[in-house]
Amino acid sequence: MRCDAARPLLSEGFDGALAAHDRRAVDEHLGACADCAAFKTGLARLRRELRYEAVQDVADVAPAVLAQLGLDSQRRRRPGAPHRQEPHGRPPQERWPRGWPPPRPRPSQRQRPPRRSRLRATSAAAIFLAAVIAGASFAGLGGRRASEVRAEDLPQRVQSAQSEVRSLSAQISVVERGWHPQVPERRLSGTLRYSSPESLAVHLTDHTDYPSDQWVPNDVAVVITPGQRWSAGPAACPREALPSCMSPEPRVESLRGREPFPVLDPAPLDLVVPVRSFSDAGPPEPLGRRSVGERAAVGVAVTAAQADPLLQGLRQAGAWREIHPGDRVELWLDEQALVPLALSVIPSDDPERALWAARRGYRDAAAAPYLEVAFEGVRLNGEVPEAAFPSPPAGTAARDAGFRAGSPAGQLPAPGWLPPGMRPHMEGVVDQGGEGIAVAAWTDGRAWVKIRATEGWAGARLFGDLGPAPHRVELGATGVAYVSGRGHEVGLHAEGLDVVVVGSLTEPALIRIAASLGLVGRPVPPDWAEGGAASLEAARRALPGLLLPSELEGFAPPTVRIAGDIVTLTFFGPGSREFILTQGPGDRLSPPLDADVRGVGVRGLAGRYTPARGELEWVESGTVVSVMSHTLSVAELLAVAASLEAG
Amino acid sequence: MEEPDPDTVRAAMAGDLDAFEALVHAYQAHVRRFLRHLLGDAALAEDVTQETFLRVYRRLDSFGFRSKFSTWIFQVARNAGVDALRARQRRDRMAQQLPPPRAAPDPSGRVEIAAALAALTPRLREAFVLIEVLGLTYREAGHAVGAPEGTVKSRVFRAREQLVSWLCDAEEEQRDAL
Q: Does B137 sit within 8 Å of A66, measured CB to CB?
């Protein structure tokens, strides 16, 4: 196939399914033609740039149009037209035809807000969320194509929605089931307050009726303000020992000298706009539109692994049950501001999940939510008083993370470029008894970026917590940089200075900032942990017949490590989904290290699965292959295995 | 794109202004977005959005359920957009095909996209915007612009060729500048 035939097919393929034979022919051509591959990349980029549109308040032309028509109709009334007498008298819900999305209510039309159910002392028989979604009108999926487009848009829209939320205040309600056999259901309620860029306070009060006074209510508080963070809640203790192991004194942790946007212990900002829960996603499964409370919401379904940043936001302190990473999370986001309004976690029907639950003593009913969270009374960009972020309880000893605000004294390179709207937020030095780390952070009110730099970094691995398998990018004149698997961190190893750029921006933006620092990034020395990073071509040469997954969606190209004739490929996907594919010559598996091992059929061969390591192994044509993951279920690992092809 | 309840459309055709208002609320965002990209001018797009719905009301008689309502609305919007462009052209006597300005590389990339879009001929631009930005099918877009499916497909491809080529050039310039 020649380029002039391939390119129109590429264009057509971007708009919908190509016939299978066309797709194969195009893929083959792409394999050999760098120009057409570049064209395809250009198409993808064009699509990303165009779908990236900030959420705005939509102006309403209806009044002007109607006014104009009113003038017209005074001159000439349409036969049979009902004369428009009562202005905005009846509430909207009564007028619109069923199944038709109601318009955004205008202030003059607002009646009493729909009844919102309050948590009652007796547990509700009905699904909790249904009680919260009063007057819900499910607008359905319309044309399938429409909702596909919206679901694809969502990650970019969430990214761009970041700058629209300056503050948020909401009531939270939580229902958790299955925490303990004697406590089948727990109900908590509280508040969420947020003030950009990084002040967050979550307070939850436990309303559950426990069987006895021995049980300590799960009253939880987490408060984060510039430079400080504290949390309080009952210490978790082993399930088998409940309730006697519970201490009546809450565990209080307090930290000062907290640098802005710390990577290791970030503020759960995904509670406000779930950027990280989507930033790596392939198109999430759409659930349509519906009203949650008074607000129009768009729903998506993702896995718990993907929504982990959001879920962990509520569980920063206190004693909670576990969530399986493969479980389904149905998430409803406000259609305009893309803040979470409701979510439920539903067990997946993966047989491995059943084992996981059995081992922990959970008896989750199939297809029934075991965790439901609702955000009600959401007020955006209103005033959030300082009292919303209280200080830690008196007498709490605070740990010091070592950050001191001030001028980083020239150690920090200044970025030559930042996205528009970014202003300096905080800067200073983190002193952890060694070389100081200079830190500077910028924010546009919600999105943020931070640069950390240090001299005399001893090495052995890249500075900046880039994770186990960063990949290398060429910056042309400014050398090389390393990007973490998640794409949130970009590291530079320069002469006498090691720098990392981290933020809630897109990977290209972070790379661009790193490239603008006026530094030349050098490749890491070969004896560093990242020194073995290689290319797929080198991997193919090291191991002919290298197996590669053929049907992955939403996963970035793998990071490659070669050690002799063993090739390790690490694939990062949406949320925290990742897996490691290792292959090397051999004709049998090594003896199992764990007692808990299951035989499974893999690609028609006998393999084994070790749940404790999340590892699936088998031998195929003289190669020992392993697929390992802590966030994918065994069914997903088997699917990955089934899709492997010699690439 | 969601289709309205046929009863609502019929009510609007019969002169029910409340039903018509529901239609305005449902489609104004899509129409505005389409016109914004088609005209390359947010203020003008605002005016033409209003004009579109005025025309929709006045021409409801001619709708007749022969096509999808959403497609028909885009037809009206597109014609209103073309009329506005011609009026402005007559007024300003400015050539429609301006090369994209390359002087200041824009970090977000969006000014470049808008400029590149503006440099397409209106036929290529409208087809591309309907497919890429609004997610219509080739057939729906064909109805909206009055051309066969195959023509729309080829216009979208040609638009993409030009846009990708301009963006690559712009990117090279940016990299040299960095």
A: no
A49 near B CB under 8 A: yes
Select from A178, A486, A189, A170 the least CA-distant residue to A327.
A178
DSSP string, A164-233: G-SEEEEEEEEEEEEEETTEEEEEEEEEEEEETTTEEEEEEEE----SSTTSPP--EEEEEETTEEEEEE
Predicted confidence band of residue A165 (pLDDT cuts 50, 70, 90) = confident
Least confident of A245-249, A474-478, B35-39: A474-478
Q: How does A226-244 read in b/e, with b if 16+ C-beta sit within 10 Å?
A: bbbbbbbbbebeebeebbe
CA–CA separation, A440 vs A488, rounded Å?
16
- Whole-model pTM? 0.53
Cα angle A106, A112, A113 (rounded to 5 degrees) comes to: 80
Residues of B in contact with A60 (CB under 8 A): 25, 28
User: Nearest 5 degrees, angle CA B96-CA B99-CA B100?
Assistant: 110
First to last CA, chain A: 20
Residue A75, pLDDT score: 45
What ipTM score was computed for the predicted complex, to two decimals? 0.74
Asked if A328 and A310 touch (Cβ cutoff 8 Å), the reply is no
Q: What is the pLDDT of residues B3-28, one digit of tens each?
A: 888 888 888 888 888 889 889 988 88
Contact A248, A278 (CB under 8 A): no
A5 closest CA partner among A34, A25, A19: A25
The residue type of A209 is D
Contacts of A420 in chain B (CB under 8 A): 107-108
Residues comprising chain B, all counted: 178
**Looking at residue B107, what is its pLDDT?**
45
B15/A103 touch (CB, cutoff 8 Å), yes or no: no
Residues 125-154 of B with CB under 8 A from A: 131-133, 135, 137-138, 153-154
Going by C-alpha positions, the residue among A437, A505, A385 that lies closest to residue A257 is A437
Residue listed under structure tokens 């961190």: A489
Q: Give the tens place of pLDDT for each residue, A496-528.
A: 899 999 988 878 889 999 999 989 998 888 777
Highest average pLDDT, of A139-143, A544-548, A634-638, comes from A544-548
